[in-house]
User: Fold these one by one.
Assistant:
Number 1:
Amino acid sequence: MPMGELPAGLRTGAAEPADGATRRTRLEPAAGGARDVPPTAVSSFAEFAGPSLLPMTRLARRLAPNDDPDDIVQEALLRAWRKWHQFDDARGSATAWLLAITADQARAARRGRVRRLRIVAEGANVPDDASQSSPTETDRDLDLDRAIGTLTERQHLAVQLHYFLGLSVAETAEVMACSAGTVKSTLFDARTHLRRTLGAEA
Amino acid sequence: MITDEQMDVRLQAAGTRWRAEHDTPATVDLTALQASDSAVTGLVHEVLPEPSAFEAPARHRRNRWLAAAGGIAAAALATVLVVQFGGNSTSGAPAGGQAGRLSGTAWVLSGMHTAKGADLPVADAVPLQFDAGPSVLGGDGCGTFNGPVSVSARDLTVRDLAHSANGCIGLSSSATRQISLIQAVIERGTVRWSVSGSTLTLARPGVGSLDYTAVAPGATPPPSVGTAGWTLQQVEVVKRIGNGSSDTGNGSYTHARLTFNGTGAFTVNAPCSAEVGTATFSGSSVQFSGRHDTYDAAGCSPYTGPGGRTGEARELSKLDSVLTGTTRWAVHNGSLTLSRAGITLTFGL
């Protein structure tokens, strides 16, 4: 992708200079203090993260269906941006790294919802976690989604990554920071649980 | 019952259909990555009824970015906080002696007021404590902060503040206001302090004030619990299956470290996260409150712990369930057990 051409969904707005060379943008006032980073760094980050944007969005939708996926992905990208210098492509792909952050961010969003539910008075108009899963095409898929919701957290993540994001077993293993064999056994356990659950409902 | 192969095919088909329905990426704004400086002023302006002397209102930001920006703002404050000893400071005052009036007591947030004296709701009774360093350790509802503090007869100044802030999205507006006000009052240098009865008040003229109430004597853990710190060794869950029940136990992925500090606060340190809150002991029970956690997902990627990130998350969810509200505790044979809601955590020294 040519420098300056951003992937769909990524917007840099007015802060992105047209010439990409003259203006410097103040970024990341985290540990170590504020530093000046040339705006081309943002374009580079956009190139780095852009191909992963759709799978990140899908994962956010699957793992936190009651939260805004835009917020989750935005927050995940913010964290990735701040940790970008730590990324080591020898240890895994960019997509796996970004999906792992997205998965954690979706979890944080769910925990934030729980915290918010504690704060907000009972009876407030807050959607129930279990009541609004993503709409699916058929009743069979609805049943399947409901059954997937009963999986353990690790099985749940493996199923979402492999079947709903379409990642290979190896890619799923990268995101879950485990071996391919572990993913296979986790998926097998998940399918066994689903077969039993759906079989009992039939 | 369908076969494993049939289940695999069904999942593949469902996934394919779902992906076809959801082929649009999120819309994200990379300018937000560049806006952290102005986010600081945006936060302060959001909470204050009038602009303070040291801030100018920033351009409006989307509400959903407010809480997330808090984390960045706090990090920015931690690094650029250069204390301005202005007219409020009483130079040369015997700091150690004054700090002694504050240390040894655990405080929890009990009231918040704007510069004009209007009350703001407290979303989370976060802790604050001083030690003989003197230093301050506290929470704001989103993360924790700590750093050295100098105390004079009237003023209290923090500097070189370290701050952790994560998992701060999705907070209520009152929680966001609380975070912003605490940051604006405490984390920006010199603040006036006073103690009246059991209430500590920290006030920053033109910004607002915070009331902290001293924690009851039960804040000190029993001698058998002590303050040395406990390491999580076992998580047991009682699952009810039909008419019977079963115990399931396993070891610990995280070996999380639970410490009661002796002044009413507790901390839990796990590989990827930390929690802080207050604990009040009474007989065989302990009341946990004001707990909040910090979670640095990106810093833990790739995770190398034995249980993986998911293992830690699962274990921490059990910790969350136990370190909430009233929990039974016991110490036997050098092990501390905490039990609540069918979950028993066993800690060793």
Number 2:
Amino acid sequence: MSTVQAPLKYLWHVKYRDGSGQEQPLDDKSILHPYDPETDFQPSAFRDIDQDDLVVFSLRGLYDTFSVDLRTGLFNINGVEIQLHDQGLVFTEPLQLVYWRQVKLERTGDETNHYVDKYFFGWKTLVDSKSYQRTMGIS
Amino acid sequence: MAATFSYSEDNGTATGSPARGTTTTASRTEVNWKNVDDSTTAYNTQPITAGNNSYTKYQYGVFTGTFNQISAGLWAHTAGTFGTGLTLKGVVTSTYATPGTGTNASLTVDMTAAISIGSGQTVLFSTTGPYDQSPVSTISAAGYSQYLATQLQTTSSTGLGDTATATLTLQYNEN
């Protein structure tokens, strides 16, 4: 290993309020934020997501689809709806998307294992000035 | 696609302000503790004599490629058992000092025993370098981890030959 990249098992897909969609391209490169030669940096396509208009965020693999609806806070696994927040919780502010991949680099001797350990996605919001966050982690 | 990662290593006399190594070697594939302050000499030609210590290693992560943010860094010894008389000391730091074989008191964490990565040391990041004196928890452009500094310390009872192989894990979040 000299330089390594963790391959992605799931790619994201988003649905906007107007019904349009956007998906993570295979090269994951942002269109709105192109490569900057000065800093030698290419932002990812995640930076292109319009967070204000987003209603559904999904992670799609070969066989499974996981999603969260930011209008209701409900998660969905292959069509099965799951509620992770308390029944009595009433949202007063918009739900904001949270998404990250937890990456591990395990180096043993001359070998490095570089992989995405888990994909986390969900939402965060404020209710009566108190912070709430619910995420689902999938491997 | 995702962030592209590699390890670099600093060696030699501390130079500059903030201090860094005189020599930087990119794309390091291993961390071998040995009796010489360089990155590439084979460890078996510069063995540590029982009762002495290795030179302190200053390695760090380099993040390039395609990502939005890198955050939540953790670092730990996560697998492998060192033999009798061996102690692995380490610390995550933004301070480079000229490596030596004296017991490095700056390496305040005993990393000899393997632990889960969730209990690892916090790693911060910078877009400037591992020596940045104001590292942050999240970067949104190409950057570096802090130095991941280690020293293998031995006693006169340490056995001959190679040590057991250890796994050092760096964990981070990206999107």
